[in-house]
Amino acid sequence: MFDTVVVATDGSESVKRAIDVALDLAGRFDAEVHALSVVDASEVDASPQQLRDELRTALETTADAALATVEERTEEGTEITTAVREGRPAAEICEYAREIDADLVATGTRGRHGENRLLLGSVAERIVRTSPVPVLSVRQLDPMAGEDDANAPAQ
């Protein structure tokens, strides 16, 4: 059912659970795994001209570290293709999924609601709305939640 899975990562805490879930799913279907991190071009463009090269380098380093995390969490012997792109994250992730003919995109989400979501936007939400393939959006569990809360159905 799934031959190619894209794991979209920015290296944040909210994506770590998504990485584990996506890798487990890919392993169950013996799917090819692609890990993708996108350097947000809008962050670079919004910075002062004299800082853009340094910021781009720092964001690329962060992207490389995010991909290294995926590689570290991947079972030994499992091949993984990694890529770093620059652009608008949701658009780049969806374009990458098209290019490699992916069957699934996996991403993390903080599970924000209401005003926070509206003010901050949501890359995961944009991916869900525009992806050419199904999207597995994995919500970060609240570390303060009890075991009963962790096993409760998502709202």
Automatic annotation (TrEMBL):
Gene3D superfamilies with a match to the protein in the record: HUPs
Record protein name field: Universal stress protein
Provenance organism: Natronorubrum aibiense
UniProt family annotation: Belongs to the universal stress protein A family.
Ranges where the UspA domain occurs: 1-139
Stored CDD domains: USP-like (cd00293)
Coiled coil: none
